[in-house]
Amino acid sequence: MRRLLTLLLILTLAAAAHAQEGGAVLSSGVSSRSESAQELYERALSFINARPENADLEKGFELLEKSAEAGNVEAKAYLGAAYMLGGNVEKNLDRAVRHLSDAAEKGAASAQYNLALCYENGLGVERDVDRAAELMRLSAQAGNAMAKEYLEETGRGGGESLGDQILLVLAVLVAAFVLSKLIRRIAGAKGKRL
């Protein structure tokens, strides 16, 4: 299970990285003008996702931190997942949860998913399966395919709200009642008793 969760986290990071269009030319990392949080994020990814001989992970993560500090939700989600995994940066669950929580509050589906995994497994937070399920549902509602799959596989999706489930039960009960009346009426018309 732990391997599957690690694989899913890695895939989340990879999907976030590859969602960005490549082609940025690496520079020295010094800008003559003030960059927006989004520009910092895009430049950070160009350092991180460059070919191995051109990659500068240290500079990339430095720019990601600046982008996150400037409020970029994607940078916070990326950093949260990176600190959670500890692959290209030192694993730091406190930082992971902080970044993921900030991004999840702002509606980042990948952050909601990864934070749900933290709560599910007690990574940097006290284990809370109810909170994990809530975050996973939010992520799935925002379109995260991995969250939808997770909910389906674990049976926690619920699909419908409690109100929808109650209406479904009532509809089944009414249908059963009407069907029993109909059967009695048909049987009575034929002179038989069922």
Short account of what is shown:
With 194 residues, the chain is mostly helical. It contains nine helices and no strands. The N and C termini lie far apart (53 Å).
Properties at a glance:
disordered N terminus, 69% helix, 194 residues, 9 helices, 0% strand, mainly alpha
Q: Explain this structure to me?
A:
The chain has 194 residues and is an all-alpha fold. The chain has 9 helices and no strands. The protein has helices at residues 2-19, 37-48, 57-69, 73-85, 93-105, 109-121, 129-141, 145-154, 162-189. Helix 4 packs parallel to helix 6 (109-121) and helix 5 packs across helix 6 (109-121). It is elongated, with a radius of gyration of 25 Å. The N and C termini lie far apart (53 Å). Mean pLDDT is 78; it is low at 1-11 and 13-33.
